[in-house]
Amino acid sequence: RYCFTCWLYCTSLLLLVIYHHFLVYSCNIISFYCTILSSIYYFHKYWFQLGVFMNIRTIVVDNTVELKEKLTKLLNEIPGVTVCQSFDDAVAAMQYVEEHPVDLVFSDVVMPEISGITLASSIYALPEHPEVVLLSGIPGFSLEAWKVQAFGFIIKPYTRRQIVDMIKKFRERS
């Protein structure tokens, strides 16, 4: 995976910096190994705090095919995020959430049959539930999103930065 490649690259870079430090300052071998071990420990600890190793399982719910595909593609490009499934309707999405582990749901608000607001309410009624981010072109729905205590609300058309910021917010909170 991309995250592992990035981690491997950064770990290698860290070891090169430590080795350079060893050559420049002529440390003894025990000091050198202690420096390596402590640096690796703090480096990995920092990466876990950032949530780099955390894989976020998401689903996308939108009855507009183009927007659903756009958001799915965008989420799949973010390291550490996996789109498990995408749905055209809230009924199928709710059934999936009940049967599979999901961390984050991105849902359109205006959909036929069941709205994204109703979907969020149903998801939050589950004992173990994912967080829900609601998406809408109508800013007035932000109050409704707040009422159901949705994790987030993004006004369409959204940008890549808004989606990435929502993922960062989720990682920080988890």
Describe the structure.
This protein is α/β, with parallel strands linked by helices and 174 residues long. It is built from seven helices and five strands. Helix 1 packs antiparallel against helix 2 and helix 4 (90-99) packs parallel to helix 5 (116-124). The two termini are 21 Å apart.
Biggest sheet, spatial arrangement of strands? 2-1-3-4-5
Total number of beta strands: 5
Return the string of H and E elements.
HHEHEHEHEHEH
Shape from CA axes? elongated
The total count of helices amounts to 7
User: How far from one another are the termini?
Assistant: 21 Å
Q: Which structural class fits the helix and strand makeup?
A: alpha/beta
- Approximately how much beta-strand content do the residues carry? 15-25%
Helix content: 55-70%
Query: What value does the average pLDDT take?
Result: 83
SSE layout:
Elements: H1 2-25, H2 29-50, E1 56-61, H3 65-76, E2 81-87, H4 90-99, E3 104-108, H5 116-124, E4 131-136, H6 141-147, E5 152-155, H7 160-173
Parallel strand pairs: 1-2, 1-3, 3-4, 4-5
Helix pairs in contact: 1-2, 4-5
In short:
This protein has 174 residues and is of the alpha/beta class. Helices cover 56% and strands 16% of the residues.
